[in-house]
Amino acid sequence: MDKQKADVIINEYIKKIYGFAVKKSFSYDEAEELAADIVKEVYLSLRSADEIPNPDGYVWRISEHVYSKYVASKKRHKGVSIDGLALPFYDEYSFENSDEDILRLRREIAFLSEKRREIVYLFYYESRSISYIAQKTSLSEGTVKWHLNKARNELKEGFNMERRIGKLGLNPVKYTGMGHGGSPADGKGPEYYIGNRLEINICYSVYFEPKTKEEIAEELGITPVYIEDKIDYLEKNGFLVPTSGGKYTTYVCFRPETYSLEAIEARQKKQLEAALMLAEKYVPMVREAIKDMTDVYIPNGNRELFEAAAIFYAINNKCGINANIDISKYYIKTTHGSDYLVYVNLEQTCSDPEYQPTLEKRNYWSCGDMTRWSDKYPVYSWSVDTKFCTRKGAWQNNLTEDYEYLYEVMSGAIKDDAASKEKFERLRERNFLTEDGKPNIMVVKGTHKEFADKLPSLPEEYKQEFAKFAIESAMIEAKKYPAHMQDLIVSTEIGGFMASFTSIMTLDVLYSTKVFKPLTKEEGTTATLLMFCDILPTE
Q1: CA torsion through residues 54, 59, 62, 64, sign
Q2: Which of 6, 169, 470, 520 has minimal Cβ neighbours within 10 Å of its Cβ?
Q3: Whole-Å CA distances, 346 to 171, 174, 176, 197, 487
Q4: Class of domain 3-160
Q5: Which residues pair with 211 in a beta bridge?
Q6: Which CATH number does the domain 167-250 belong to among 3.40.50.920, 1.10.10.10, 1.10.3860.10, 3.40.50.300?
C-alpha cells in the first residue's frame, strides 16, 4: 500500500486507537506509550499490505496483538496475569469480554489493602525485585512475599465472586439537618466533618453493622482507593470507631427514616401535662427562690423577663429525670477540641399519614442550652434560642467574643471610636447594644453557679408522675435504633422529657394565662438569655 493511502487510514483511526489505549491503561502516560506502539505497528503493516478489505477488523486485531505483547513485557501474558491468575486473550476482533475481565481485575486490585496494592503494583507493573520492594516499603523480603501470596489469593477469590453494590451505592441517604450536644471548638460543629453526602454515607454504612474499609467501599459502590483517606480522617476525629477484626462502627446518632404522628402526639400530650403541672407547682417555687435577686440589669426593667429566663433554665437543668446511664462513650472528640454528641436527621416518611393530630400545631424548636465563658474576663452566658427570642444564627452566631466585647463596654475598657469600630458594629449587629450605646441584654451580677444554686430542684414526687411514661416511651423509641446506640437513646429520651420542649410549653402556659405579659419585640433580644459577670451596666 502506498504511503498516502496508509496515512489516510491512520488519520481515520488515530482517535479510536488512542481511546482503546486509554481503556487498557493505568495512566495517561502508559496510554500514550501504548497508542504510539499500536500506530507504529498498524502503519508498518499497512505499508506492507496490498489491500485491506476490512480495515476495522485489521486495525483492531493489530491493536490487540500489540497490547498483548505490551502487557507480556509487564509480567503479564495472554491478557493479564497476577502470579498465576490468568485472564485469556481472545482472538476475536470484539474486545468487550477481555475489557470486562481486565476491569474486574483492576477493581479487585483496588479492593486490596493499601499496602498490598502498593506491593502488587511495584512487583507486577513496575517489575521491581522483592529486595527493592522490601527496601521501599520498609518490610522484610519474607513479609513482601507473604503479602504477594495473600494478594494472589484475595484476587482469585474476588475475581470469582460477584461483588454487589450495596444499597447506599444505589440510593445514598440524604440528611436534612444536623445537631450536637456539647462543645464545638472554634465553631466547628459536626457539619465541618461530615457535611457532605460521602462522609454521611460512610458513617451510615457502619451504623447498623460494623464493616471493614473494603466492605464500606463495596456498600457505597466505589473502590477503597477513593475513600481510605476519608475513613482515616473520620476515624481520627472520632466519627468512626475501630472495632475488632479491622472493622468500624460509629456513635453518630442517625434519626430513623420513618416517624409516627400518633407517637409524637402521645409524647407531646404527656409533656403538656407536665408543663401544666410545672406552671402550677414548680414555677411559684422558682419565682420565690429568686425574688431577692436584685443585682440584675434588665434593659426595660420588666422583671418578668428575668423570671421567665430563670424558669426556663430551672426546668432544663433542675427537673430532669435521671436515667443513670453512662453515655460518655457517645461523645465525639475531634482533633480541633470539639466534644459533643452528634445527631443527624435523615429524610423521613410518615408511617401513619392518616392520623389526625388533635393538639394545636406550635413551634417547639430550640437551640441550646448554649453556654459561653471567657478565659479573659469573669464572664459567662447562658441562652436558649426559641420562638420567644429574636436572635438570629443559632449557635454558630453566638460567640464568646460578643459577651467579652459587651463587658469591655460596661467596664469602660473600650469607647465607641475608630479603634473599637468592629466590636461596636458586632454588638449592634446582634442588637446587644442599642444605638445610643446601652447594653440590651440581661446581666446578672455574680457567678452562674451562684445563680444555679439558688434554683430549687423539682421534688421527686412530681418527677415520678411522669417517670413511668418517660421510661416506657424511651424504651419503645430505643428499639428503632441499632443495639449499640440504645443506651444513648434511652438516656436522652428520659432526660429530655423535662427539657426545652417542656420549658417552651410551660412559658406558653404562663403567657396564654396572662401570668406573664406578652413579650415585646425589643425584649426578644434577651429572652431566655442571661450574662453573668462581676459588674452591672451603669444606668
Answers
A1: negative
A2: 520
A3: 13, 6, 5, 11, 21
A4: mainly alpha
A5: 248
A6: 1.10.10.10
